[in-house]
Amino acid sequence: MIPVLVTLATGLSLAYAVLAPSPVLEARASSSAITAAPQLSSAIATFEAEVATLAAAGLALEAILLDIVPPSASDSIPAAVSRAASAYSAHPTDFYQEIASLVFNGVVPGDIALIEAGFIVENSNTNILNPLPKSNIYPKSSTDAPYDVPELTLRAAMYIPPGFTYGAKQPVLLVPGTGGYAGEQFATNCGLLTFATYCRLTVFPVAKLFANSPNADPVFLNLPDNALDDIQVYAEYVAYGINYLNSITGKKVATYGWSQAAVTVRWATKYWPSTRSASSVSIQISPDYHGSIVELALCPVPGGSCAPSVLQQAYNATFIATLRNNGGDSPYIPLTSIYSAFDDVVQPQVSGPGASGFSNDGHGVGVTNVFLQDVCGFILPGGAPQNTHEGVLYNALALALANDTLTTGKNANLAHVNTASLCEKFAPDGLSLADVAVTISNIVISGINIADAPNKSSTEPPIKAYAMKDIPSGFSG
Ligand SMILES: *[C@@H]1O[C@H](CO)[C@@H](O)[C@H](O)[C@H]1NC(C)=O
Ligand SMILES: *[C@@H]1O[C@H](CO)[C@@H](O)[C@H](O)[C@H]1NC(C)=O
Ligand SMILES: *[C@@H]1O[C@H](CO)[C@@H](O)[C@H](O)[C@H]1NC(C)=O
User: Fold this and answer.
1) Nearest residue CA, atom 6 of ligand 1?
2) Domain end: 117, 132, 162, which one?
3) Coarse DSSP helix, strand, coil percentages of the chain, rounded to the nearest 5 percent
């Protein structure tokens, strides 16, 4: 795998060279090479049948991925995204077959542990030396929900990169999606955004994206257990994180998230009202404000046990119903929401209010809902099948709209960007093939971590006391 990795991610190879081989390499030694599609398909089918009961399902999946003998790596971004699109088109409703095909097609290296190791710094959630807030924010207001997580734990989950300006630039809290940490999910694809410098500087001191525009300063919020436990608990981290960054910078805080981040930020701003005046804007990529009708594909055994946060994001989950009830179907801070028809994890994603990514604007704060295919159609790179759940993370239109949101401090205005030219791009200017490949690898990382979730359950965590008033009739808390 190493040569493929180096080709895909030349910039990363230096960092990898010093790392010890991952433990899964040992599991691999006893198994056999996978060189044909039917072989892979049957290995994954066996994995799917056993995932709910395997003690170390993630390791089993990693071992399969390591056995894959891929074709030579793509040598351009258009070639790589076209291979990603074929993995999606071949398995649009079978999540694990699709992510294995990303490796089989040579889009993503099989040694996922090595990729994760490259983000060990940004993924940290034990940052106990983060400075104290300038005033008491735990709690900030008597109208906020109570915190259960200790303040030091909440504060330590934020990785503040060296070079953070403490208010000279717009602070941005990066909130992860299901199955991973903010470091690995954003450290490469956010390169095109203004915050490129700090996204990459810590791991790759000579990163190409050295000089960038001045309007965003990122902080990585690394939720424990890969964001796979109770989302209500993760909302405490977001609420504290917004008020904390507001306190240490004196600036209103932007949030930028993928997937589950959308409902985590919505829950935090609904039940911790003090976060609203401390916030500027929110940008959400592939959000699921109405959960997903296909999310159980992530838990392949029907009725079997699965990660709590995945169960909470079912279309009819009590968590989602409670969130949406009494005003939570609308944001409490200005929102830019961007989603795609080819989302393999969140559905429905369609034009208009039926999309899970769609928000109403009941609180009049300003909402821009962008269904990519409304703007780019279904053929151009900006709207074609590579725009999966993770594909939107490197979509050029999405990132230009994110930049517009951060620049203006308001929900995005499509008239501010050149949609015709952005729809033609396979990725934003400034992202490399390695950036795109590592961004795509996050869906594989999520799959492994979901399979390995430590606290699998067959029922959602109970709704917290402060939110029980919002459980709609017909749902049980
Ligand atoms: C959600 O619940 C409604 C009402 O019970 C039902 O009609 C619908 O099929 C459910 N949808 C899913 C995706 O479970
Ligand atoms: C971000 O927006 C600013 C202001 O419109 C613009 O000058 C800059 O080129 C944009 N950057 C990107 C990466 O789109
Ligand atoms: C699992 O759930 C328990 C009990 O709710 C909790 O204390 C723990 O932090 C969770 N995570 C892990 C990895 O055990």
Assistant:
1) 316
2) 117
3) 45, 10, 50
